[in-house]
Amino acid sequence: xxxxxxxxxxxYETDPAVATDGLPDLTRVGRVATVAEGRPRLLDAVYYxxxxxxxxxxxxxxxRRTGGPDAGWHLKLPVALxxxxxxxxxxxxxxxxxAPPPELTALVRSRVRGAALLxxxxxxxxxxxxxxxxxxxxxxxxxxxxxxxxxRLHPEGAGEARWREIEVELDPEGGAGRELLDxxxxxxxxAGARPSAAPSKLxxxxxxxxxxxxxxxxxxxxxxxxxGRGRTAGDVVLRYVRAQVRAIVELDPxxxxxxxxxxxxxxxxxxxxxxxFRTYGKVLDRTATDPLGGELRWLAAELGAGRDQEVLxxxxxxxxxxxxRTLRLGPVSARLRTWSVRRRAGAxxxxxxxxxxxxxxxxxxxxxxxxxxxxxxxxxxxxAPAVVAGAVLKDYRRLARRVEAALAAPAGPGRDEAxxxxxxxxxxxxxxxxxxxxxxxxxxxxxxxxxxxxxxxxGDHQDGVVARAALRDLATQARRAGESGxxxxxxxxxxxxxxxxxxxxxxxxxxxxxxxKHRDALRR
Length: 524
Hints:
By secondary structure, the chain is of the alpha+beta class.
């Protein structure tokens, strides 16, 4: 079973000629009362990657290490935090084995795809660790002085490198943060150290042991870095497409780990990408993208299998919490929980099976193949503003037809279906404007904001339609079990009232969204 440790650290380079006990007095740091120097340890780690270093390009490391208290397999995945105090990674650990463990290789599958994982670098490190403790004796951080010897394993005999570095890593339970890292770093710099230019030991090893002329991992954003500057329609559309493909790839391991909101965001990326293929058919040939759109629709359905039920259950649970206890007749809470668990049973296993299956892997391969050789049509070479504005306005006209048809429909299931169709059109128009923003600027951002408001209103209405169907089902189950269906009927009436309120709000919001001046701004 894999364990996860959140790693927050900063790295510094220092002169190998300086003795390991040459650290400055770290008790000068505010919260540090004592510094305990440990005995030197010898660490031996072999790092795995594809031959073209796909993991290193995304700052991911997979290694087999012996010699320390955490001997085993380690997978390090970067973590993006709004206010990161240093390099933040999740280190996922598995016991020692001869080959990379399946629970770790599954988490890099979206990057590796069908390529083999090979031993690429061996690092032998002599580590002297210094534990910083507060006045109560609790550990705050570890400062490790590492003498590193790197040997290239693939291709064989490419080279060796040696260096010394200092790692400052916060204790995951110590409660220290940026201030402590800043103070320790300042003392190290004053003593002659300098912030490391490499994000990790592996990155430095790959750079310093690479054969002459060999390709090096470029990292995020280096590939096709000149795209998205709004020069041509192809630039703008491909920038958006690449961003969504990157999101699907990066969110894959988070979805597997069931991290908060990961499945939802991965599903959103599949929808954005599919929408872009349909909206920008004049830029990307739909004979190439339509098959991918079908597969993206499949993936979105797999991602939504449990997500939709979770959202629905949360809505019903929150509504039930607002009902006075005197009006909760019968075991309504227990029935709602049982119903939700049964509806969600197997959804997690189904998702993992889909992500591990050949269909998902084939989709990832096909998406990368499309990006490597984009099926651009003639308008892709034209200046971006006119082409992308035309696509956004075409989606707007589609949205207008659907909203106006829904407003004209009589109340009932037909109107509900029409409003659901309008919601899907609003989402597509919103995504079209998102993609066009690098070329159209502020008008596209404003259009995105307004269509998002419309989408949210229509989405809440559709959620209420789904909730009413679920409440009818729950009331029927309660009646068959000899229980009162009163409370479920009460909740049904509440959802009807909310839906009616959204329908009353729609005309005014649509009047604002559909103002001609907003469309004219996109054409300028």
